[in-house]
Design goal:
Shape: globular
Largest sheet: 3 strands, antiparallel
Distance between the termini: 49 Å
Radius of gyration: 16 Å
Helix content: 40-55%
Number of strands: 3
């Protein structure tokens, strides 16, 4: 396996740029909730497909898909929380590392499981729509809403939700 180092580095930069914006997160709370639910659905489907259900929704999907995958530990260390930051919702390191490791797989996931959607695309879109989230027992706290995690089987069985920009913007326009 060849690690896509450039993709991993680019993803670290993208994640480091995520900042909490309360006004944006509030205005987009409906779409952020949808993106959180879709993240849980997709990661559940991947966890079942690659046998990584044990620590879901934060299991190492990339490592389960390719146990030989290596990503520079110094690169991943850049995702550690900044003690000087006032960001109330930083990107949690466990999900940040999972996203970077996934990016390092390059095209391998699509080649092996073409029927499954990218598990982290919804989370990246959620970050773009106002910032990250915090973990709470049994839920993801998105700042102005929360999502129950439930079980792998519950989430994997759900139908996909549209997460294109137009659908998300329309959802946020609803009263």
């Amino acid at each position: 396996m060849v690690t896509d180092t450039a993709a991993a580095e680019a993803m670290v930069e993208r994640l480091l740029a995520v900042k909490w914006d309360g006004d944006t997160a509030f205005a987009r709370r409906k779409s952020r909730a949808r993106l959180g639910r879709e993240f849980l659905r997709r990661t559940a489907q991947w966890a079942v497909a690659v046998g990584a259900e044990e620590r879901w929704p934060f299991s190492d999907l990339a490592g389960a898909l390719d146990p030989e995958l290596t990503v520079d530990p110094e690169l991943l260390a850049r995702l550690a929380p900044d003690d000087m930051s006032s960001d109330p919702f930083p990107v949690p390191p466990v999900v940040g590392e999972a996203i970077v490791r996934w990016a390092a797989l390059g095209n391998l996931p699509k080649e092996r499981f073409p029927e499954l959607d990218d598990p982290y695309e919804p989370m990246l879109a959620l970050f773009d729509r106002g910032g990250a989230y915090k973990r709470a027992p049994g839920e993801l706290n998105l700042g102005f809403s929360s999502i129950q995690v439930r079980t792998v089987a519950d989430r994997a069985a759900l139908e996909p939700l549209p997460i294109d920009v137009a659908a998300l913007d329309a959802l946020d326009q609803e009263s």
